[in-house]
Design a protein that fits this description.
- By secondary structure, the chain is an alpha/beta fold.
- It folds into two domains: 15-53 and 319-430, Alpha-Beta Complex (Aspartate Aminotransferase, domain 1); 72-316, Aspartate Aminotransferase, domain 2.
- It contains 13 helices and 14 strands.
- The strands form four sheets. Strands 2-8-7-6-5-3-4 form a seven-stranded mixed sheet, sandwiched between helices.
- Helix 5 packs parallel to helix 6 (144-151) and helix 7 (170-176) packs parallel to helix 8.
- The model has no long low-confidence stretch (mean pLDDT 95).
């Protein structure tokens, strides 16, 4: 008797990977590159990376390491020398207590550090259990939500508005915390909003976290992404408190804060993929060892010849960092002032990072000259790119009020900012 082969369906990918949304940031960049390949002059304001080159002392330090033969495996969390430099930086600049080199793990970029930390902290729920919750103020960078979901968390979005500088209030945080709260994800200065929390804002949030941790949410941990900590512009707001403050420096909650940072934005090293994180005290050591085990089964370590870049960046590039920060401040002012002259657009002034995040919803319900119906930030951005060759990031993927906004980076030359906003103005004027 013949035995029929088992009936099979089509081969499938995992639910984990099919549930992940593609990045709208890189989708816009890809479309812009395709247009440029056709010979069209596209003005790009989409990708969040500095237009400067990596400073020469960093490149020279890595070249010397290569010449010296540092091409073997590095320790998984990074060399002791590099981790000591980072620990000193967190201690002396960020004022985070109880940080040692053993608290530091160096990863393949800040995004990788976030991914490792979330997987070290979050378990998918067992059958019949409520999922752990990750509290996320939105609009927020596009990768926080899928990373938390991939780790097994249910994301609780807390909506913020331009009126508050896209900052979550203590009352909003208190309302969002439940017994299932596991993570609170903070990002200041903010991508995409270009705004930031003041030190008093963060101390007030820390008070809420301390109370909740002592009552209904004993497992709550804060992940503070501070990748833009050196790109802050007090000169754009002389009457406000615009300075960096690490929430991990608040003693009462220090041990339940994981602070993530990296070299990519401050030192124009996005392609190098050099991120890192720290915790504090005994629990910080536990998180570091957990993330290290996770990293050991994925990327292992970044190249050993990259490790001298930390010394060069921290000790030889301060003047260059300040020079570039000043240029970014000037560009942010230029872009914001120009955008505020366009009819219907509203936008908080940038305080940090290198983004403006204008609300374009006043133009929803109109049509472009080529017949595109403008009913969302996505359609606004698509028509702007198609008809005026300006690439911006539609805000839907950032969550919350982002669906009314588009993100523009001012990490580009002054003339590009001026020409680009002029084209946006022409586009806006053409909508009927």
């Amino acid at each position: 008797m013949e035995i029929s082969p088992p009936q099979t369906g089509p081969l499938l990918l995992s639910r984990r990977v099919t549930s992940v949304r593609p990045s709208s940031t890189f989708a816009v960049s890809a479309k812009a590159r395709a247009l440029k390949a056709q010979g069209k002059i596209v003005l790009g304001f989409s990708t969040g990376e500095p237009d400067f080159d990596t400073p020469e002392p960093i490149k020279h330090a890595v070249w010397k390491a290569l010449k010296a033969g540092r091409t073997k495996y590095a320790p998984i969390p990074g060399t002791l020398e590099a981790r000591t430099l980072i620990a000193d930086r967190f201690t002396n600049r960020h004022m985070i207590p109880d940080v040692t080199p053993d608290h530091i793990v160096i990863c393949a970029g800040g995004k990788h550090a976030l991914f490792n930390v979330m997987h070290a902290l979050v378990d998918p729920p067992e059958p019949g259990q409520a999922p752990p919750e990750a509290i996320l103020p939105v609009p927020a960078w596009v990768s926080y939500l899928p990373q938390a979901q991939l780790a097994g968390a249910k994301v609780i979005e807390v909506e913020t508005t331009a009126k508050t500088g896209f900052r979550m209030t203590p009352a909003q945080l208190e309302a969002a915390i439940t017994p299932n709260a596991r993570l609170l994800i903070l990002n200041s200065p903010s991508n995409p909003c270009g705004t930031m929390y003041t030190p008093d804002d963060l101390r007030a949030l820390a008070d809420v976290i301390e109370r909740a941790a002592n009552t209904i949410a004993p497992n709550l941990v804060v992940i503070s992404d501070e990748i833009y900590d050196r790109l802050i512009y007090p000169e754009l707001a002389p009457d406000e408190t615009v300075e960096h403050f690490s929430i991990g420096s608040v003693p009462a909650i220090a041990e339940r804060v994981i602070t993530v940072n990296g070299l990519s934005k401050t030192y124009a090293m996005t392609g190098w993929r050099m991120g890192y994180f720290t915790g504090s005290g005994a629990f910080g050591l536990d998180v570091a060892r957990g993330a290290e085990k996770f990293q050991a089964q994925s990327t292992t370590a970044i190249p050993d010849f990259f490790m001298p870049a930390f010394n060069a960046a921290f000790n030889e590039c301060e003047d260059e960092v300040e020079r570039r920060r000043t240029i970014f401040a000037q560009r942010g002012s230029l872009m914001h002032d120009a955008l505020m002259q366009l009819p219907g657009l509203t936008c908080p002034a940038p305080r940090g990072a290198f983004y403006c995040f204008p609300d374009v919803s006043a133009h929803f319900g109109k049509s472009s000259p080529k017949g595109t119906s403008i009913d969302s930030a996505m359609s606004f951005a698509a028509a702007l790119l198609d008809e005026h060759l300006v690439a911006v990031v539609p805000g839907e993927d950032f969550g919350g009020a982002g669906k009314q906004c588009c993100r523009l980076t001012f990490a580009c030359a002054d003339d590009q900012i001026t020409q680009g906003v002029e084209r946006i103005g022409m586009f806006v004027e053409s909508l009927k």
